[in-house]
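Much of what follows relies on a compact textual record of a protein's fold. A record is reproduced here so that you can trace the correspondence yourselves:
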Amino acid sequence: MIRNLKILVISILSISNFSCLSENRPTADAIANNNRPNILILLTDDQSFNTINALGNKEISTPNIDKLVSNGFTFTHAYIMGSFSGAVCMPSRAMLMTGQYLQKLDKVQGAIGENIKTIPQLLKESGYTTFFTGKWHNRKASFFKSFTNGENIFMGGMSNHLKVPLYNFDPSGIYPDKNKFFKDKFSSVLFKEAAVNFLRQYDGIKPFFACVSFTSPHDPRMAPDDYQKKYNTEAISLPKNFMSKHNFNNGELIIRDENLLPFPRTKSDVKGEIASYYAMISEVDFNIGEILNELKKNKFYDDTIIIFTSDNGLAVGQHGLLGKQNIYDHSVRVPMIISGPGIKNGVFSESLVYLNDIFPTITDLIGIEKPKTVDGKSLLPILKNPNNSVRNSVFLMYKNFQRGIRTKDWKLINYLVEGKKTTQLFHLKSDPLETNNLAQEFKYKEKINEMNGLLQKWINISGDKVDLSKEDWGVPASKSWETKRREQGLSLDFKGNY
């Protein structure tokens, strides 16, 4: 309580120094040393940008995320960069925690590099208590250097939501298999309970950095019955870009994620998948509400920067796809909401941002110098004025056979699959669902050349090795999931056993 009052007094004295200050929130710029704000990251798994009621999807119920939208600043065009492998979650989470571009990460599936400082590690060194619960999906060593506390920690990538293998915080950083345990509760409930326990025990002396990393709505799609019943499969709308199958080989049509439904896709199957997807998001939303209520109950809410986002999106029937192993917007565009001290309420920005921009934004908000390894850009200029921008385009990639570039109005995707090149050009202002490929029309040849030039610049900046001027792009051809499975003598069928 004393800490809260000190923050409020300091912020009132400094109110004129922060142009985007809301009337009822203390300014982060004015907070120093142990009077810095708390930071809470709420991270979902595989949640696309278009799955929030307050942002336009009226078929889904997300009342608590809706409140974050009302009470915070929403970036409507936030992106991940892509992935080296089918496990898109890992590099996205590593980008968030390190602030680095994808190509700067450790090349083992985009993991956090050994000598790279994470945002919780930096904050720990700056006097923060750091806490984690949920899905880490990175190396144990990077977890050890980042956190001082934790509960119900999942070190893997995916699991049955009722059989999540868990660890409690291990100060040795070893996390041996013998210490693994299971609890008979749904994953989101387990992680919510750990976060609530942390908040109840928190003494308020040091500021905290807490990350609640949900495994939902990642498959298996198995929402609790109470939430599944909220969604009538027959009443669910099909996406307007629904296809029974993708119209060309994108290099990854038979990966595990795509095998969750039979080929070709049927309307009824896809509707069922969407209904379960929405049900799982609603269940996560409820547990987010419980965490926020605990934050308010213990009088920490007004002192806390809250960041809600996800590690990637999901196709769920769009373009004939189910998974995230592509660079259409439904799979690489994610929700991102920031609320807290000094942040305007109910504001939206269409500026192009990345998940790795969160790191330098946090350091700017709390007045800590960012490491030189950070590639992301602080979003503080946009938080001050939603019409500002920090970049005019975003670079997108998947393995060595998909490369793309998006500007405000245009998107170009190049494919090189088994020696065959395919190009897609979309005018997003008139075609936001990316259904009308303009690449074969002669009048857009100049636009394609312009976008390819911008793409190659991004490739060079990011550290990517692709050279679009070369027939084979100058890199070894990536193998599809299908090819790798066949080479290993493994089945291409996936039965959903976790």
Summary: Residues 1-33 have pLDDT under 50 and may be disordered.
